[in-house]
Amino acid sequence: MGIVTNCTDKHQACIDECNRCAQACYECFEACLNEPDVNARKNCISMLVECAQMCQMSASMMSMSGQFAKDHCNLCATICDKCAQECEMFKDEHCQKCAQECRKCADECRKMANM
């Protein structure tokens, strides 16, 4: 449900998933920086930040019913899929959980973009 209006109700599931994914990516980013193989994770670490930023931007666009919200969500789905792919290369729990969140977000974003 919207916080001050109900104009975003149709996008609320996607807004929530984008916010959840951004949080997962930032948490995974922090965990990856503390892994012993941090050099092997450079692409993943970079992708985590890009994904989190895109999710935050998409949530913002949907919250204000921006005219390019669907475009943002379409790109967000692509970035979330790529981030999930990067995370899936590492078998630790935080990367696996983050990959799951990214996949869920990508699915919600695709649904929203196709509304």
From TrEMBL:
CDD domains named among the record's database cross-references: DUF326 (cd08026)
Protein's name in the database: Ferredoxin
Organism: Clostridium cylindrosporum DSM 605
Pfam families for this protein: Csp
Lineage, broadest ranks: Bacteria, Bacillati, Bacillota, Clostridia, Eubacteriales
InterPro entries, per the entry: Csp_YhjQ, YHJQ-like
